[in-house]
Structure formats: C-alpha cells, structure tokens
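Components:
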Amino acid sequence: MGSITLQKVSKVFGEAKVIPSIDLDIRDGEFVVFVGPSGCGKSTLLRLIAGLEDVSGGKIVIDGKDATEKAPSERGLAMVFQSYALYPHMSVRNNIAFPLKMAGMDKAEIDRKVTDAARVLNLGDYLDRKPRQLSGGQRQRVAIGRAIVRQPSAFLFDEPLSNLDAALRVNMRIEISELHQQLKTTMVYVTHDQVEAMTMADKIVVLNRGNIEQVGSPLELYRSPRNLFVAGFIGSPK
Ligand code: ADP
Ligand code: MG
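Structure:
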C-alpha cells in the first residue's frame, strides 16, 4: 500500500503546457518532497495525483492499480490542506470526525478513530475546543488529524506550513517527520522551501517549469547536483 507511479503524466491549461511529461516512482512508505520555485507546477502535480485535476495525458497508478480515471475519494489518498481549511464553528473533535461522518461510519467507530488520532497528535486535551482557541501548530495538527482518521495509503501535503511563523514551522517540520516515522505511511510533500526539502525528504523531486530536473536523496542532490538549476536551488556548492 502507498506506492504511486506516474507514467508520462501531462497537464495542459488552455494553451499552457504546465506539465509536459512526467515519469516518477514513489515507493511505499517513502517521504517524497516536490520542491521548486513558485509556478513550476508543484501543486498541479499533487492535484493530479489526488484526482482534483484530470490529467491531459498519461497514467497514474496507485498501489498497482490504474487510478487515472478514479474519483479523488476512491484513490485512498488524503490531502492535507493548510490549517485555515478547518471549520471554524466545529469543535476539534467534529473537525477530525467530519470525513468519517460524511462516509457514514457509525458513531462508536468514529469516536475510537478520533481518540486514536488525537493521541498520536497530542490533541487529547483540546478535542472540545474550537479552532480559534488553538495555536497555529495545534490547528495544523487538527488538519492532519482529519487526514489520519481515514487511514490513507498516502498523505499529500501542499505547503502545509507556509502560513505559520518561522519558529512554529521548525516545530511542525519535526512533528511531521516524527509522524512519518511512527505511521510509516507514504507522504508526498510540496514546498518551495529548500530547508524543508533537505531535512524532511527521503527523496527530493526538483521541479522546474513542469519538468523534473533531478530526483535523489538530499545527500545525492547536495553532493552531485545534475545542473546549475539544481545546485542553485538546493544551495550546494557546484
Ligand atoms: P506551484 O504550486 O509550483 O507554485 P502551480 O502548480 O500552482 O505551481 O502552477 C503551475 C502553473 O500552472 C502556473 O503558471 C499557474 O498559473 C498555472 N495554473 C495552475 N492552475 C491553473 C488553472 N486552474 N488554470 C490555468 N492555469 C493554472
Ligand atoms: Mg503551489
């Protein structure tokens, strides 16, 4: 569970070929970071994997099955949005439970899953609060909790920390890495922040104008950047 393969995946918006053609293998349990400058197609690629956008060409295989035509809810993935996507009028408990209620799960099972997620995320004492009564980091944990209860085969994050202040970003970076070690679930994480990429990733995918410039571990990219773009972006000495 948790492998994702892209085969010649492309995306065109009107006249703009935003993703010309991408081949990529994401293995089960990997923490993969898509990094690159603003507008290079990171969010588009993630949305194609999630099924929030249709591909213009190519194939997406999830857990060995062709998922290209599947609806987002049938792909077994969970997208984590920025914390402001929480429902302000609902308690933490109900925010986390929401996707399960929508799926028609029974109340006892929902309660059990919410309690489990709250324990993993250290939110046990905050279940009856509203989002506005939480810190930015706690809110982000609630957003992650909403994904965890669905037990996805992979988590997709799109710049989840970009609206947090610098100190909190460092904390959350560590928390998400620890969560990955604990759950061992595939995570695909989009950021334009080189430090996040270098510190969190098992595998970094460097994107530039919708193309993959290089794929490798942080150390590989640092030691042997393939070109000046990668060197400049990763901040390595080439
Ligand atoms: P990133 O997340 O790396 O900043 P995006 O994937 O959001 O980049 O965008 C890549 C390119 O695709 C940009 O030029 C953006 O303007 C364009 N784009 C994204 N979504 C749409 C859309 N729905 N319609 C038209 N153009 C889009
Ligand atoms: Mg983006």
